Amino acid sequence: MAQKRADMIVETRAKLIKAARDAFADKGFARSSMDDLTAKAGLTRGALYHHFGDKKGLLKAVIAQIDAEIMARLEASLANAPTAWEGFIDESITYIMMATEPEIQRIVLLDGPAALGDPARYQVQNACIVSTQRTLERLIAEGTIREVDTLATSRLLNGALLSASLWIAQADDQQAISKQAVDSFVQLIEGLLLKRPPVRRSAASRTRPVPAPPRVQDASRTSGSGRRG
Which of 37, 113, 154, 222 is the right S-S partner for 133, CB 3.0 to 4.6 Å? Predict the structure, then answer.
């Protein structure tokens, strides 16, 4: 009986998150009514209130789910790179370029901050900083970059990436701005190298597209589900 109830809770949350995610991506958060969301999910407003508190609570759950998918894509970029340094660059470029994707742009970078406040204060940012700090420590240990204060540097780099993403999301020519952001960020982090790379390619040309994975069921029930977002 207890397991059946737990399964029903998971199913109810998943239905509400899916309905909200589709609506927020299509209409935006402000124009999506709770009645429409619950009707699409085949549930009542009471179910929404019970599981998420209100529409903002549901938005937080949707963003948590997207963050989990972003993290999976970033990890794939890192894993596919031939070296830790190349992985660090590819991971960063992948993150910046995701700001051009309509769903991430609208829900995470535009409606999220408008409804929930400064994204730099989101809990997920702590996980982003820890992840970047570990990468920097590894690069120092293997002699790739110079000795730096890894906590301070990781905070600065994550702040730059978040700022770049917000800039792209609000730009008219997003492709041009994203190329500027990528090239400038790579120049910035190459300043950490002990030895400059012999040949510089256009940073945008080295982007390895990483397809979005299937949606996770309910990332809002986990912590530390994203990176730099």
Answer: 154
Span 136-167, pLDDT tens digits: 999 999 999 999 999 999 999 999 999 999 99
C-alpha to C-alpha distance for 183 and 48, rounded to whole angstroms: 43
Q: Would you call 149 helix, strand, or coil by DSSP? A: coil
pTM for this predicted structure: 0.83
Distance CA 51, CA 62 (A): 13
Q: Is the dihedral of CA 45, 49, 52, 57 positive or negative?
A: positive
Residue found by looking up tokens 């999301």 in the block: 169
Q: How far apart are CA 42 and CA 38, in angstroms?
A: 6
Please give the Cα distance from 91 to 64 (Å, whole number): 19
The 3-state DSSP class for residue 193 equals: strand
Q: Are 134 and 151 in contact (CB under 8 A)?
A: no
- Cα(187)–Cα(181) distance, rounded to whole angstroms? 10
**Tokens encoding 165:** 């993403």
Q: Domains, the chain, ranges and CATH?
A: 2-221 (1.10.357.10)
